[in-house]
Amino acid sequence: MFSKTIFKQTLKQNWKLWAIFTALSAVMVAVIIAVFDPRMIQSMMDMFADMPGLGDMIGERMSGELSLLGMLGNSFYSMQGLILPLVFVIMTANSLIASQVDRGSMAYILSTPIKRVKVVSTQALYMVTSVLCMFLVVTLVGLSSVQLFHNGLWGEAFTPDVIAAAEVLALSKEEVSGDLSLILNDEEALRAGAKARGLEEDVYTAYLNLKLMEETGEVPPMGANMMNADNPLMAAMQGKVIDGLSAAAEELGMDVADLSTNMGKLKDHPTAIAAAAEASGLPETIFTTIINQQLAAKELNYDHGIDFNIIGFVNMNLGVFLLMFATAGISFLFSCIFNLTKNSLALGAGIPIASLILQIMSQASKELENLKFLSLNTLFDPAAIAKGGTFWPQFAAMAALGAALYLIGIKVFKEKDLPL
Questions:
Q1: 3-class SS string, 31-64
Q2: Which of 4, 49, 136, 180 is the most buried (most CB within 10 A)?
């Protein structure tokens, strides 16, 4: 069921096409990983949040993108990582069977002692192998890029504040990173760390306290945990705080819900803080502490953003491979059915492209959400993989569908009449 000679010939004819699309995919994933910055992503989310309609759509799409894996899932593996392999699959599947029948070269191949079923089986094997090797390369390049740019696989990545503070304290970065209280207890190191991180010193102090609490489980100094809903003081003041935020939102001309999730905007508006204090009857220091706490929590989320889930990344590449495996099965089937390239591409390219378009449309509007049930691409959900959701049943479905399509294509080509 396999011809080594035909496989070598097919490889020789198609390796340049494979190399081009594989290199493009690998370079794109490497560049996206290299430029990843949780702060930049948060800034984009804040910018789009003020745009009606678009803000909601972008917010849903970018949910979870503060992590490197989440960002890859919602960008590369939702667009570039699908389009490039899709074009390769369509072009290759057509060239393996239909194009050769159309040109007449298949007649020459079948005039040899090699049986027809062995020819088509070998071409199917090349199709699957080429797609598999493409994603193996992308996976390896991605993992290498994560290590190169973010120390995400082994070793330790140090934040700019730890590097700056270590220099002031004349200690190693490992020592300072292992005991952040060293920064808290040294005013000069605290100033250097805050400057390196681009924060005000009070916000940076709150960040260090949150970081210590996360790492050691110890209770941080008084006031660092003001935003915790379990804090008795916060619970008692909750109503007054809401009154204060409502007054501040009115002063700023914005919605109170938006202000409550982005209270950093109060930092540059003393009049708004004063309005909040007056309406609530609470000291301005209370609101300042809450603002610092929220900004510190964001900084902590930025640190989490560079944590990398290796298994999740491998699963994401496995998922997109299985999607392309099933998609290639569609293109290969129609390549086996039709004798003319134009007919093979009409359905072998038309159906996969339509599937991608339907998936994109379903994400653009809630009114079009049901279109996802008409798309094969719905079975690949990078967001679910990034968040540790359920995806193995979808993987199994794509694998079964792809295998069935290849087997049907082989059977059709074996039994059909050819213009020899």
A1: HHHHCCCHHHHHHHHHHHHCCCCHHHHHHHHCCC
A2: 180
Helix (H) or strand (E) holding 348: helix 341-348
CA distance 137 to 153: 17
Q: At what angle do helices 392-415 and 310-337 cross, to 10 degrees?
A: 20
Predicted confidence (pLDDT) per residue in 83-96, tens digit: 999 999 999 999 99
* Contact of 2 with 114, CB cutoff 8 Å: no
Q: Kindly state the tokens that stand for 314.
A: 């491998």
Residue carrying structure tokens 């992503």: 41
What is the spatial distance between Cα 89 and Cα 87, in angstroms, rounded to a whole number?
Answer: 5
Res 225: pLDDT: 43
With vertex at residue 397, the alpha carbon angle to CA 15 and CA 372, rounded to the nearest 5 degrees, is 95
Q: Which amino acid is at 184?
A: L
What is the rounded CA–CA span in Å between residue 214 and residue 297? 11
- Cα atoms found within 13 Å of the Cα of residue 85, Cβ hemisphere only: 33
Q: How far apart are CA 169 and CA 18, in angstroms?
A: 53
**Pick from 330, 295, 272, 290: nearest CA to 131:** 330
Please, which residues have CB within 8 angstroms of residue 136's CB and are 6 or more apart in sequence? none
Q: Are 409 and 99 within 8 A, CB to CB?
A: no
User: What pLDDT, on a 0 to 100 scale, did the predictor assign at position 24?
Assistant: 97
**Sign (positive or negative) of CA dihedral 228, 231, 235, 240:** negative
pLDDT per residue over 336-394, tens digit each? 999 999 999 999 999 999 999 999 998 887 888 899 999 999 999 998 998 888 999 99
In the prediction, which pLDDT does 414 show? 93
Low-confidence ranges of the chain (pLDDT < 70): 39-66, 155-156, 216-237, 304-306, 420
Helices 116-150 and 80-96: angle between axes, nearest 10 degrees? 160
Q: What Å distances lie between residue 368 and 278, 359, 382, CA to CA?
A: 47, 10, 20
3-state secondary structure of 158: coil
Rg (CA), the chain: 28
Residues counted in the chain: 420
Looking from the CA of 373 toward its CB, the CA atoms found within 13 Å total 3
